[in-house]
Amino acid sequence: TRAATVAATGSRNGGTGNLRVGTGGTPGLTLDGEDAYVEGTLEVDGAAQFDGGITVSDVSCTDCLDFADLEDTLDVDATTDVNLGANNLTIDLDSTGDFAIRDGTTNVVLVEDDSTVDVTFPAAGTFGIDAAATANTTTAGVINLDVTSATTNNVAMDMATTHTATGATTSYSLKNAWSSSAVVAGASVSQTAYADYVTATKTGADTATGTYSLYGTYATASNTGRTDAGTVNTYGGYFDATGDTAGTSAAFGLYLADVSGADTNVALCFDCDGTWTSSSVASGLQFGTDANAVTLYRSASDTLRTGDNLTVDLDLTVTGNDLTFGNAEKFDNTTDGTLAATVVRDRDTVWGAI
After folding, report:
1. pTM above 0.85?
2. pLDDT at 179 over 90
3. What whole-number distance in Å separates Cα of residue 294 and Cα of residue 287?
C-alpha cells in the first residue's frame, strides 16, 4: 500500500494515461488516456460532482432522492408500473400548486389546491364506469353522491346539455335504460324494479310564515321561436306502459295514489297556478289526437264542459236545480219536489209541471 498526501488546497497530477484498479474486468467504454476504471467498489464519503452524464444499471439508496434532485421534465422510455404494495401514495396540495394530468399541453384532469376537480374532455372523450363486467354486489349505489348544505341554490348534481346540430338528430340530456331478461322462478317470489325512483322528504317543526313548496318531480318543456313550418310537438311529460296478459296483470300509464294530510287534497289539478286563464282543453283533458278526439275541460267558473257526446251507462244524478239544453229548453227541480219542464216551440215558451 502506497499513501500519498496532498495539501487541502492542492492536487495530485498523475500526467497522462488512464487510472485502472483491478486486472480481471473489461471496461465497457474505451479509455482514451485520461479516464479511470475501477473493477471493484468505489466508495466516496463526501460529495461527488459529475459534470458529464452518468450511466448506471441500478440505483439503490434509502430516502436519498427528491424531486428537487431531478430535472423539471421527466421522460419514461418504457412501459412502467408503480407497485405500491402495502404503502400509500399521497400527493399533498399543501400550498397553491395544482395537480394536472395532461394530454400534451391540455389538462385532462386538474385537481386544484382548493379541492376543485376539473375534467376536460376532447370531442370523443367519455367517462366510463364499468360495474357490469363483474356482477356488482353493493347496495349503497355504484355512484353514491351524498351532499349536506345550508347554502341557497345548492345543487347536488348540475347537468347542462347544449345541442347545436342543425340536421336530423336525436339528443338526450339524461338517458336511463333498465332491463332484465332473467327468468324469475320460485313459489311466492316477488320482485320490484324502478327505472327512476325519486323521493323528497321534509320534516321539522317549522315556524316560518312564508310558503314552503316541495316537489317530488318538477319538469318543464319549452319549444318556441320556430317559423311557421313543419310539425312541432312539445311534451311536458310522456308516459307509456305495456303489460303482459299472462298471470293476473294490470298496466297503468299514469298511477296516482291517494293524496292526504293537507287542508286541501287534490290528486290531479289542471291550470292550478292560482290564476285560471284557459277556457279550453288547454286546462283539461283530451282523449286522442285524431279528428274524433274527445275533450273535457273547465270552460267557465264552476263549469265543466265537453265538446263531444257523453254517454252515461248507469244512473245520472243531478243535485242542482236546473238541467238546461242548447235551445233554452230545461228541467227545473222546484222546491216543492216537482220537476218543471220548459219547452221552446217556435217563438213561444211552454212551461209545465211534471
Report:
1. no
2. yes
3. 5
